[in-house]
Structure formats: structure tokens, C-alpha cells
Amino acid sequence: MATPFSRSLRSLNADSFAPSLAGTLLAMLILLAWLGWFVTVDITLYEISETFTVTDEERILAEFPIKSQTRIRPGQAALLRLNVPMGAESVVIPAVVYSTITEPESDKFLVDVYVMSHFSPVPIQEGLTGKVEIEAEHVSPLTLVMRATGQLMDAEEVTVSPQNQEWLDIR
Predict the structure, then answer these.
(1) 1 in helix, strand or coil?
(2) Residue 60's CB: how many other CB atoms inside 10 A?
(3) Is residue 96 within 8 Å of 73, Cβ to Cβ?
(4) Which of the listed residues 36, 38, 58, 87 has the most CB atoms within 10 Å of its CB?
């Protein structure tokens, strides 16, 4: 059965669109905040080595694949994560890339890392196992998505974390 036209207009005039409008505005604000985060936040990407040798109390020599050579530079922040027994608290020691060593005719790339041993609860000595993580770059989620879809092929210049600028002058 058809609704008379005058009743429809009266119903529309009496209806309030405020809740719908408020919900739409709230959804747009949330979407805008997420988009701002997606474009501006920095995600740290690491180059990781599972193999290292202790050269002295404050220096270690870590081995990386040759493809990492373009992403690792002296002065970059690093972390030394030591393997600990099950149930023990993990040991993470701050470090800085001191120098890089390219071995000719090899698929390995050596990185000399200065370990800030005064932050270490255990002495840095031969026989320790773990991994070395070097901050390779800081990128936004948008950049990661563009790289994953193949739309952004050029990697950005390696940047050093701003909070670690004082570590650059260790020599």
C-alpha cells in the first residue's frame, strides 16, 4: 500500500540526522588519524647477524651477507642481544658500528662494532653467542606497503636515529 506524500514529507521533516552525521564525522576523524599515522610514523628496519666474534672487551666483529653492505655505515646504532638460558632475563647491550670490512671474493661482509660494555651486566668475552642488530633505516608503513607492491624500488638513504647522534663521535 502506498504511503501518502504528505505523510512522507512530515516524517522526513520530523526525522533528525544528527546521530548519523555525528557517527560519520567520528568515523572520518578516526580514518584521518590512522592515515596520518600511516604516513608519518617511523618503523626501524634492522640488518641482523647471528655470527660474531669478540675481538676485545669493547669490540666485536659481526658477519653479514654481502647484500647488507649498502645499508650499513659507520656510526649507525646497533644492539648486541646475548643468548641466555631459559627463564633468565635477556641481555641487550647498546653498540655502534665502528667500521666496515669488505672481504674480496667473498659473500660475507664484516662489521666492526663498538659495544658499550659499561651497560653490560655480563663481561664481553670470547664464547658469547647471540646476534647483532644494526638499525639500517627508518621508514613509514606507507613506504613498506609501496615497496611490497613494487611501486617504490629505490631504497632511501640510510639514516641514523636522532636520539643516537651523540654516539657518532666515538673515535
Answers:
(1) coil
(2) 25
(3) no
(4) 58
The answer to whether residues 64 and 73 touch, using CB atoms and an 8 Å cutoff, is no
For the chain, which residues make up each domain, given as ranges?
Answer: 43-168
**Helix 18-40 / helix 141-148 crossing angle, nearest 10 deg:** 80
Could you identify the residue written with the cell 596520518? 36
pLDDT digits 0-9 by tens, 41-59 = 999 999 999 989 888 878 8
Tell me which residue of 87, 167, 79, 90 sits closest to 122, measured CA to CA.
Answer: 90
The predicted model scores a pTM of: 0.69
- Percentages helix, strand, coil for the chain (3-state, rounded to 5) are 35, 35, 35
The three three-digit cell numbers of residue 63, written as one number: 658477519
* CB-based contact 41:141 (threshold 8 Å): yes
Q: Into which CATH architecture does domain 43-168 fall?
A: Beta Barrel (2.40)
